[in-house]
Design brief:
The chain is α/β, with parallel strands linked by helices and 315 residues long. It has 2 domains: 2-65 and 69-116 and 271-299, Rossmann fold, CATH 3.40.50.1400; 124-269, Rossmann fold (3-Layer(aba) Sandwich), CATH 3.40.50. It is built from 8 helices and 10 strands. It has helices at 19-31, 48-51, 71-81, 123-136, 174-190, 230-239, 273-283, 291-299, and strands at 2-8, 36-41, 59-64, 100-105, 110-115, 161-167, 195-200, 218-223, 254-256, 259-263. The strands form 2 sheets. A 5-stranded mixed sheet has the order 2-1-3-5-4, with helices on both faces. Strand 6, helix 5 and strand 7 (195-200) form a beta-alpha-beta unit. Helix 1 (19-31) packs across helix 7 (273-283), helix 4 (123-136) packs across helix 5 and helix 7 (273-283) packs antiparallel against helix 8 (291-299). The radius of gyration is 19 Å and the shape is globular. The two termini are 32 Å apart. It holds the Pfam family CbiX.
Length: 315
């Protein structure tokens, strides 16, 4: 038997913070790829510390529903799961390339495959693009009449579409910015959008000045956050000038300084996130059959599953 544990932060203050975790776990559960699927949290119940002990499966795949490698993925979750032989060096990562480590939870006799966070997996690139498609209700956003020929892209002088990938940014964890920049570069290399830039809340270049960084008339802004909350629903909309008061809401698109800003909200609420969970587990050796194809069909994505891609190449 094999089990999947989706490990997320949760919140004591925001009752909606865990909604994406439950939604994506339910999607994976419905595919039947795992005998058991469990949600576990740091700030909510069920807690990280107890979750493995509730499983019957001998083989457990733990996937952190976090954006970057850092304190929670490298210290908190392994400690709470009591993975005694764990060390960040087992991922052999440069900050965006964590894969998986196979460890034994000897007190309960289970094999634990501890995976890297969803936010640094190559499949997250597809989720960001899918988020832009969802926000604009246009599956060909950034392309000319649906063409995938780079020569057919609209030029900036024709208006065109830009894409901003937004992260928190912090001096306390340099990997936070690395994840944002990694996916930004991968999307830029696809040539789909006229401009693609990484912006941040707490470091330069700041999302507050989004219109200063784009010449395109239309800009899709995708926050690389797992759940909607204070930052995505209050700070960012007000900082970008979409609204003077988040409680009054804002238009999508909103007119700001001669640009149309298509603000999407947290990328982690996109249906395709369930695919990233599956791909992380598959990379660690989980037998998931055709579950990825099922999830992508449900999410309306025509991108190929990325578990077999060569890292750093185009989709």
């Amino acid at each position: 038997m094999q089990a999947l544990v989706v490990a997320a932060h949760g919140s004591h203050l925001n009752p909606d913070a865990s909604d994406p975790t439950y939604a994506h776990a339910d999607t994976v559960r419905e595919t039947g790829a795992f005998d058991e699927v469990r949600e576990a949290f740091w700030k909510e119940e069920p807690h990280f510390r107890e979750v493995v002990r509730t499983l019957e499966s001998d083989e457990v795949f733990v996937v952190p529903l976090f954006i970057s490698e850092g304190y929670f993925t490298e210290q908190v979750i392994p400690r709470e799961l009591r993975l005694e032989d764990w060390g960040p060096e087992k991922w052999d990562s440069d900050g965006t390339s964590a894969s998986q480590a196979t460890l034994e939870a000897e007190d309960v006799g289970k094999t634990i495959h501890y995976c890297g966070p969803v936010g640094t997996h190559d499949a997250m690139t597809d989720v960001i693009v899918q988020r832009a498609e969802t926000a604009t209700a246009d599956p060909d956003v950034g392309e000319v009449a649906g063409s995938k020929d780079p020569e057919a892209r609209r030029s900036i002088s024709d208006g065109g579409f830009g894409l901003a990938v937004v992260g928190h940014g912090t001096e306390r964890n340099e990997n936070s910015a690395k994840a944002i920049e990694y996916h930004t570069e991968r999307i830029r290399e696809q040539g789909r959008f006229d401009e693609v830039k990484a912006l941040f809340m707490d470091e330069e270049p700041e999302v507050d000045d989004v219109t200063d960084y784009f010449e395109t008339e239309d800009v899709v802004v995708v926050p690389l956050f797992i759940a909607d909350g204070y930052h995505t629903q209050e700070d960012i909309p007000e900082d970008m000038g979409l609204t003077e008061d988040y409680r009054l809401g804002w238009d999508v698109p909103a007119e700001v300084d001669g640009h149309r800003i298509w603000y999407t909200g947290a990328v982690g609420t996109e249906d395709l996130m369930a695919d990233v969970l599956l791909e992380r587990a598959a990379d660690a050796g989980a037998d998931i059959g055709d579950a990825r194809e099922t999830v992508r069909e449900l999410a309306g994505s025509d991108a190929e599953p990325s578990a077999e891609r060569v890292r750093g190449t185009d989709a």
